[in-house]
Write a structure and sequence with these properties.
alpha/beta; TIM Barrel; globular; 217 residues; eight-stranded parallel β-barrel; single chain
């Protein structure tokens, strides 16, 4: 991919569930308007992750949703996913870039401006967080809060680093306006959507708040 891809402002991350429970939730999310889905399965065998990814890719294709695979660059390539997202303890984006031969986009992760400097030459977007404490992720980095997010964004813009930045970590609909006001390019959400009784209503609320906030800021 020679040109930087357009990054969706609402990225939805799956909960760590077995396939029989996860697939119906993914379809509900796609029906509800999710256009960017990250499959995150940290505690499952690689074979099961690949099988689940292939099944979810079929669902995403039906609803024109882009699929991102967490951690596993090889699975992203083999299943025809749009990209791979790499945490700070995963494969470095530079190595993933070489291995993928630009067949997939690459998302990085940062908890500091220094980390952004390290990964931005090799990534297509960077997840910045955690915004607040979340149980979704093990080995959580120090919580940034709104000021920490803004500080990283400001440093990036001051240094002409234009890579899209996505806030992540315990984000709710009520946080959207404040986060977008920092200059962040989008948000990544998991439990706020997948733990909801009515996924469609919550997705619609996120999309509406994002659209209004992006127009304002």
């Amino acid at each position: 991919m020679t040109e930087r891809p357009v990054i969706c402002p609402l990225q939805v991350i799956t909960p760590d569930l077995p396939a029989n429970k996860l697939l119906p939730l993914v379809e509900k999310a796609c029906i509800s308007g999710v256009k960017w889905l990250q499959l995150r399965m940290k505690n499952q065998p690689v074979k099961e992750i690949e099988q689940t990814a292939a099944a979810i890719k079929q669902i995403c294709d039906r609803y024109n949703c882009r699929l991102i695979i967490n951690d596993h660059t090889d699975i992203a390539i083999n299943t025809g996913a749009y990209g791979v997202h790499l945490g700070m303890e995963d494969l470095h984006p530079a190595k993933a870039r070489r291995l993928s031969d630009n067949k997939v986009i690459i998302g990085g992760t940062a908890n500091s401006f220094q980390r952004v400097l390290e990964v931005s030459p090799y990534a297509d977007y960077i997840g910045i967080g955690p915004y607040r404490y979340t149980r979704t992720k093990e080995k959580l980095s120090p919580v940034l809060g709104i000021e920490g997010i803004k500080n990283i964004v400001d440093h990036c813009r001051h240094n002409q680093i234009t890579i899209p930045l996505i806030a992540i970590g315990g984000i709710t609909v009520e946080d959207v306006t404040a986060l977008i006001s920092t200059g962040i390019d989008g948000i990544a959400v998991s439990s706020a959507i997948f733990s909801a009784m009515d996924i469609k209503t919550v997705v619609s609320s996120f999309l509406l708040s994002l659209n209004e906030s992006i127009k304002t800021y």
